[in-house]
Amino acid sequence: MAFNNQLLFKQILAKRSYLCVGLDSDISRIPKHLLTLEDPIFEFNKAIIDATKDLCVAYKPNIAFYESLGASGWESLRKTLEYIPDDIFTIADAKRGDIGNTSLQYAKTFFETYEFDSVTIAPYMGEDSVKPFLSFEGKYVILLGLTSNKGSDDFQHFCDISGKKLHELVLERAQEWSDPDQLMFVIGATHPEAFEKIRSIAPHNFFLVPGVGAQGGTIEDVSRYGLNKEVGLLVNSSRGIIFASSGEDFASVAREKAKELQSQMEKVLIEREYL
Ligand SMILES: O=c1ccn([C@@H]2O[C@H](COP(=O)(O)O)[C@@H](O)[C@H]2O)c(=O)[nH]1
């Protein structure tokens, strides 16, 4: 399915959710009883997807947890991607970006060899490093804006250039490269105070918001200023959902955690009159 912002909005309203479930399926944290199976990571992901697919609008496998295992990890990723229902948005969290001809190969990896709907990209090599990803119709680039980690203070949040923070310049400049139906930004939930300004700079783009749960961000805080007329948020939680239990009940506990977040989102959607 080729997504655009309208379609994402429709899915959000239908599911009463803007939840993205992060498939950071760390082999060292997979429940023990799955480890004897032929492909423990795929079996784990399959159970998580079965347990959460009615509660979320996106899945985000973080590529590090697959490529670190070599060929078998890429195969688990391929099977996972194939298993995700077609109407759920998929994000390759790969944080790529290089000189143009190399970026094009990364783009082919995630948009053709693996048919993801989107990929996360680091913006700091500039326009020619991002453009190859934008040449794929119906696919989104998700550019790192203000990341959720403490190190975002080192450059993104505190470098001041002509009165603008570095991440603000990234948000402004990148909007010259493509429109909101192809460009999203990563904005960490750990910076709730920055959302009002960021939303004013990028009023129409979807934001992928990691940092809820394990990193301390909340749905309420990011929704206060982050929402736009098409909701405009995909809020991710990975460990807080998928590793909430390490026992045989891992999938049902993951569902409970996803349900808690979805219910908070539904409340916001009702209060803000989307529903
Ligand atoms: O700024 C960023 C960008 C990406 N991430 C990724 O999101 C998930 C968060 O996982 P949790 O377990 O919910 O903390 C993970 O894949 C990160 O690599 C981020 O956290 N912050």
Description:
It contains eleven helices and ten strands. Helix 5 links the parallel strand 3 and strand 4. The mean pLDDT is 97. The two termini are 25 Å apart. The protein is globular. An eight-stranded parallel β-barrel has the order 1-2-3-4-5-8-9-10, surrounded by five helices. Strands 6-7 form a two-stranded antiparallel sheet. Helix 2 runs parallel beside helix 11 (250-271), helix 5 (100-113) packs parallel to helix 6 and helix 8 (195-201) packs parallel to helix 9 (219-226). It has 275 residues and is an alpha/beta fold. It has one domain: TIM Barrel (Alpha-Beta Barrel). The site of ligand LLZGTKA7 has 19 residues, from strand 10 and helix 10.
Please give a handful of descriptors for the protein shown:
275 residues, alpha/beta, eight-stranded parallel β-barrel, globular, binds the ligand O=c1ccn([C@@H]2O[C@H](COP(=O)(O)O)[C@@H](O)[C@H]2O)c(=O)[nH]1
